[in-house]
């Protein structure tokens, strides 16, 4: 059974470590804020100038002036700080973010990511993605394994304009958790009920499959 958007976010949250400074991109990554494991403290950073994002607000706690980089309303945890976007990007470019979680259109086996434009479609701009993939040592991509036509987005070589080159370490889709190393994707975990054969069928890139591939646990 393929993972839901929430389950993908839950699995990403298991990668968080106590004391991490984390930037969550637009889309599925924003949901990670709702699933931070108990017993650890992380500080979520937003490009528009907030360090210390909390969970999404309820109707009682919503503040329309408090938003993330994707213009979603958010909450702030105790100790949160506000600053200009220039200072925010100085943090990102200076390598002070421990983990970045991004969405993508395509990722390939060289660790390249295409996440910002599809030729012929209206694009508002790259946003902070280029800075984030250049400034963070640890990057996790959340995405669907294939497009709506069933064509793989896990590729030997990206076909769309790149956001960053040779920078992606791990990818979590609705089907699998994979690591990129030595010029190939390595299958680490599969979604509950999803077969290795289905993952192989929907992966255009070189995929290294160990003898035993455990199911994800939540």
UniProtKB/TrEMBL annotation:
Family: Belongs to the 3-oxoacid CoA-transferase subunit B family.
Organism: Kangiella koreensis (strain DSM 16069 / JCM 12317 / KCTC 12182 / SW-125)
Ranges that cross the membrane: none
Protein name: 3-oxoacid CoA-transferase, B subunit
SMART domains reported for this sequence: CoA_trans (SM00882)
Stored NCBIfam families: pcaJ_scoB_fam
EC number: 2.8.3.5
Enzyme class: transferase
Keywords for the protein's UniProt record, in alphabetical order: Transferase
GO MF annotation: an example: succinyl-CoA:3-oxo-acid CoA-transferase activity
SUPFAM superfamilies (alphabetical): NagB/RpiA/CoA transferase-like (SSF100950)
Pfam short name (any one): CoA_trans
InterPro entries, per the entry: 3-oxoacid_CoA-transf_B, CoA_trans_fam_I, CoA_transf_AS, NagB/RpiA_transferase-like
